[in-house]
Amino acid sequence: MFCAALTPFNADLSPDHALFAAHCKRLLDDGCTGIAMLGTTGEANSLSSRERMDLLEAVLKSGVAPSQLLPGTGVASFMETVELTKHALAQGVQTVVMLPPFYYKGVSDDGIVAAYSEIIERIDDPRLRVVLYHIPQMSSVPLSLDVIARLREKFPQTVVGIKDSSGDFANMSAIVERFPGFSVLVGADPLMLSLLPKGGAGCITATSNLVASDLATVFAGYADEARQPQVAAAQERIVAARNTVSRFAQMASLKTLLAKRYGHDSWTRQRPPLTPLTAEEAATVNASFDAS
Amino acid sequence: MFCAALTPFNADLSPDHALFAAHCKRLLDDGCTGIAMLGTTGEANSLSSRERMDLLEAVLKSGVAPSQLLPGTGVASFMETVELTKHALAQGVQTVVMLPPFYYKGVSDDGIVAAYSEIIERIDDPRLRVVLYHIPQMSSVPLSLDVIARLREKFPQTVVGIKDSSGDFANMSAIVERFPGFSVLVGADPLMLSLLPKGGAGCITATSNLVASDLATVFAGYADEARQPQVAAAQERIVAARNTVSRFAQMASLKTLLAKRYGHDSWTRQRPPLTPLTAEEAATVNASFDAS
Fold it and tell me: Given 1.10.1530.10, 3.20.20.70, 1.25.40.10, 3.30.420.40, which CATH number is that of B2-225?
């Protein structure tokens, strides 16, 4: 159960390393297996390669173990995906979440397989573990079941899982059924409870920035008859939180709530082209969360 | 009249600097006003920042003047857009073609204006001239008329034009009509002839890699009664070439034809996720071009 961690920014929009590291530790204390930092939710694609590497190093330096981090390393240029992934490996991190190259649209399955192959072969490191990243509403480059099959066959030790952020439960279920032993991590918090009994591996989600302990309760207890009341109550809070942060822009809403929790403005900032909530929206979100 | 130059690659997929520089010179000899290198057609978003800067420097070193180059510098992270643009300015290049940040989708006009503003203000160089880049089918981040209006008002000396690659003639016409003095460069070769009389500034196109002299004929002669026969004949060849390269993937088709023209394999290669034509497709494209 991984949190797609949000990234706080200083007034000059540089990543706030100290606040971010403290947030990661809180998430781990709350029961997260690890932190999927530098993903869509973390605004990684609004950061430079240097900023991404610096943030990863800062978190490690703060005492978080490399095995607890699943950084996103997939960018538009496969050359830079290679650089970012090699950097993560050099820091002791073995598992990365990797977007396909996302600038060109309408690319073929052959092209997507070629891109991942080029990256994995150029990195050429037996330690590497890749979680593919399917988020078609943002990347506009969907990963088909055929792409997964071909990459699994070509790199069975390396391509170990997928983050499915499509929100399409039928797609996640199909992947779980077709690829036993392949880790399917759901990207939408409320769906984890339904995917786990089918063989899902867990989640990488945004709302867990706020309700990590509830997600941890569901993850640990979903199959335990005796813990069903706690699991049900936690799931209810997860759904309520998700509804609250889905009224307006989700990331901005989560940041608004974290700014309140931590009492720090760095949490409200977003890098353009994303924008923070208006004061009115923020008040609505805060009231809604407090009431739930 | 600018060519959106294709990029040849060596066997290891590194950009072939010498072939690229030679191609740029041929395009200028054929009558191009300048070279819009490192755009969508140039596979720039499959290159690292370092590779982009090296290619720009190589072309300049080969003797092409900075004033003849319009490099693309817009990437997903505004931090790197700033770096690439500052590098171009440091090389003497003043005009760049700038994509909006293209990872996040469904962003607001406020967010797009904020992103361009952040970039222009961080660069803070009075020499800078920005051509906005509207290519919604690839970036998935359209630039509305309202975004153009706001950026023109905020940065009247800097935001001087737009490349409209939407293929939507009504949109280009609307921009020309609403913003006198703003340079609208059409992204589809056959449309330039229709946009010029309305006040269009010219084009940045892909097919001109192949038929630059014909585009130059149209550009120079469209308003001259005496040159209408030559203009019409050139336009016919442009349309035929465009039809030929639109049967299969356009960039791969153009590269196939350039590989034949220049007799060099580097021209056939594409970086993943794009893929070259199959042998059969290539034969069809070559035959079709020879016949036209």
Answer: 3.20.20.70
C-alpha distance from A104 to closest chain B C-alpha (Å)? 6
How far A221 CA sits from the closest chain B CA (Å)? 35
Contact A101 B275 (CB under 8 A): no
- Give domain A2-224's CATH architecture: Alpha-Beta Barrel (3.20)
Instruction: Of B245, B283, B260, give the one whose Cα is nearest residue B41.
Output: B245
What interface predicted TM-score (ipTM) does this complex get?
0.96
DSSP H helices in chain B: 17-29, 49-61, 78-90, 109-123, 136-139, 145-154, 169-178, 192-195, 208-221, 228-245, 250-262, 279-291
pLDDT, tens only, B122-175: 999 999 999 999 999 999 999 999 999 999 999 999 999 999 999 999 999 999
Q: In Å, how far are A115, A116, A161, A272 from A99, measured between CA atoms? A: 11, 9, 12, 20
Out of B40, B101, B274, the one facing A46 most closely (by C-beta) is: B101
Residue spans per domain, chain A: 2-224
